[in-house]
């Protein structure tokens, strides 16, 4: 079978299984089983699937996933991260769009803990949105900032998608996690500046309201005891990786242990918190590991059928600028992201994309950061943007999907601007990983 015909048949059958309602990971495993049996025979094919799955999962760096996940789960379920809202609110003062800015800043803080866009959006939508509406905020300044702040989880340290991208694409997980810092902070700053400028020009979008003044001693005390311990924990896990003191796994283990100590110190550890945290960790980690196993078998199939080499030769033979090929690859990700979930997209594209990026002489870390932001775009774009539905679920019935979608448009545009900026200035993504070496 020609390599291009193999790809058509493979993805065609995969789409059939997915439209039948089979989970993506199991659809991938089923199609891998069918085609590897066709290519190699039943017994050799099964042996290859088992060996490739074992080889992809029996790796020390993958323990980063459950450790970072349980770190965020403990801090979220214990309620410690919610307490930071009051502390951050005291420091914002009387700025335009105060609560919208609070949602962005607190969202970036939570993103660095949980790595989950859904958890961020649902929590902020439940906690902040009712107060914003009661104070007369326009829906565009309620819905948009909360969804945008939730989506920051994809491009912040401890991002589970970054770990997954590194695992599937055979890219350094430590470098990827470090590389998310500057783009994540830059994206947060762009969102804050946009909100403040828009609300300053049109104060009716976010009416000013009386706030309780707090003394500097009260602000410093609340910051020291309410935010600083958690912030130092996040900073420590990042710096340990950056300076090469610890591997990502060792850093994640320290983060998980530190989170447990913080929850105990704040007397927030209960059986309910512990059970919810363990359950959430098992669900998320199990799903990710199954996907990695399925992706490894797909990579083997690409090699056996010659599809990897065929795609590389085709890409290198195109008489167009290599940067345009990168743009086309990212546009394909954005298109797929409007139909299927980000993890499935990585599983399908990365075994093909990363060899092409390396063959075109580009840094896979640079490409990986842009791909993460493109994957994040799909969370905010119709018809299947996941955060749009999460926001609808935590909003009053009178809030329509049209309002939710329109409120996300400015932030989608800002994300596209950031992708273009990273494409033009690769150092935004590659500077920190290169300094740490």
From TrEMBL:
Major subcellular site: membrane
Membrane-topology annotation of the record: Multi-pass membrane protein
GO cellular component annotations of the record: plasma membrane
Domain TRAP C4-dicarboxylate transport system permease DctM subunit: 11-428
UniProt-listed PANTHER family: C4-DICARBOXYLATE TRAP TRANSPORTER LARGE PERMEASE PROTEIN DCTM, SIALIC ACID TRAP TRANSPORTER PERMEASE PROTEIN SIAT-RELATED
Membrane-spanning segments: 6-39, 60-81, 141-164, 176-197, 223-246, 252-269, 281-303, 315-336, 343-360, 366-391, 403-425
One of the Pfam families matching this protein, by short name: DctM
Keywords linked to the UniProt accession: Cell inner membrane, Cell membrane, Membrane, Transmembrane, Transmembrane helix
Recorded GO MF terms: transmembrane transporter activity
Subcellular locations according to the entry: Cell inner membrane
Organism name: Paenibacillus validus
UniProt-recorded name of the protein: TRAP transporter large permease subunit
InterPro entries from the UniProt entry: DctM, TRAP_DctM
